[in-house]
């Protein structure tokens, strides 16, 4: 049985009273949901009083640690799959958050294998809230593979999004981005598609795009230009079986890792199938020179960034037919 954690993050910033909005940030495993969430928190939304519900799929919690540097108090409210608790604890938790903290906006980041349609349906059934922005973040590099292999979860996140953001793209991938945008448009004809890299967009522009009623716009593309950067927006029964499809392996560790060692480990994971079909890896560990880093792996990509000091290192792996014994040895 996999463990999924639901956390509440309450910002200490007070905003004006208004109708309570719910924004949902969905996306498949490793797409960049937490990156988008941090960008929004550090930008326009920091002016509001926020509550954030985050659900992780796996045996150890990492994303919560990555958000600790954003002036947020962390409160754990329940455990279990956010998708499977929509009719129970999840809805009651939202009502309790509203009663106690009076947020102006609630942000929900479900796990990468949650069904977006079920989350939207449940949120709409709660009195006193308005489902507002619905984002889906898509990993451009692995779009075709995920669409082919995980259609049930993947297509649901595309069909029900209002705004889709293509993450992890490079400047020389224009043909690939056009192809992906066309494929998305066949699945969802009404969403906006943001094709610029997340690092080149600020939160004000993302929220401005998300609020636009694209049905009222006759042009096929809207261009936003800032200094030397630009981005294009193209107008272009409950079945949650994640535990039956995906396996997880996780560990808390006090071991130090060199960045070269980590790269070698994930090179080995990418080249060999003896560890299983690994589709997501992430962690926070201490390096052999005393610094703390966070790392993120999806097939074909491995990134390392500095992070804040932690109490203990954590590593999480998600995939299919994972061999936990071999992973234990690999990270030993």
From TrEMBL:
Superkingdom of the organism of origin: Bacteria
Catalytic activity line of the entry: GTP + H2O = GDP + phosphate + H(+)
InterPro entries, per database record: CobW-likC_sf (IPR036627), CobW-like_C (IPR011629), CobW/HypB/UreG_nucleotide-bd (IPR003495), P-loop_NTPase (IPR027417), Zinc-reg_GTPase_activator (IPR051316)
Signal peptide residues on this chain, from the entry's feature table: none
Ranges for domain CobW C-terminal: 247-331
Domain (CobW/HypB/UreG nucleotide-binding): residue spans on this chain: 24-193
Coiled coil: none
Record GO terms (molecular function): hydrolase activity; nucleotide binding
Family the entry assigns: Belongs to the SIMIBI class G3E GTPase family. ZNG1 subfamily.
Name of the protein this chain belongs to: Putative GTP-binding protein YjiA
Protein encoded by which gene: yjiA_2
């Amino acid at each position: 049985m996999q463990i999924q954690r639901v956390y509440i993050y309450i910002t200490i910033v007070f905003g004006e009273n208004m109708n309570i909005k719910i924004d949902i940030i969905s996306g498949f495993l490793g797409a960049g949901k937490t990156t988008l969430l941090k960008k929004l928190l550090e930008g326009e939304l920091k002016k509001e009083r926020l509550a954030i519900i985050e659900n992780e799929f796996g045996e150890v919690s990492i994303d919560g640690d990555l958000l600790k540097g954003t002036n947020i108090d962390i409160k754990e409210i329940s455990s279990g799959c956010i998708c499977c608790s929509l009719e129970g604890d999840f809805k009651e938790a939202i009502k309790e958050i509203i009663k106690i903290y009076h947020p102006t906006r609630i942000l929900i980041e479900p796990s990468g294998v949650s069904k977006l349609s079920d989350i939207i349906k449940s949120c709409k059934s709660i009195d006193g809230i308005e489902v507002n922005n619905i984002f889906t973040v898509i990993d451009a590099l692995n779009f075709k593979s995920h669409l082919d292999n995980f259609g049930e979860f993947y297509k649901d996140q595309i069909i029900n999004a209002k705004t889709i953001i293509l993450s992890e793209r490079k400047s020389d991938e224009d043909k690939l981005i056009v192809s992906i945008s066309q494929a998305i448009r066949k699945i969802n004809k009404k969403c906006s598609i943001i094709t610029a890299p997340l690092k080149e967009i600020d939160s004000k522009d993302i929220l401005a795009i998300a609020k636009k009623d694209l049905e009222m716009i006759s042009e096929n593309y809207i261009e936003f230009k800032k200094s030397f950067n630009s981005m294009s927006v193209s107008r272009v029964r409950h079945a949650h079986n994640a535990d039956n499809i995906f396996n997880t392996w996780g560990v808390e560790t006090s071991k130090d890792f060199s960045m070269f060692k980590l790269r070698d480990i994930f090179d080995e994971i990418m080249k060999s199938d003896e560890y299983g079909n690994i589709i997501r890896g992430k962690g926070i560990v201490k390096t052999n020179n005393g610094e703390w880093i966070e790392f993120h792996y999806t097939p074909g990509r491995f990134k390392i960034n500095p992070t804040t000091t932690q109490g203990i290192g954590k590593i999480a792996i998600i995939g299919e037919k994972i061999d936990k014994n071999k992973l234990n040895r690999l990270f030993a």
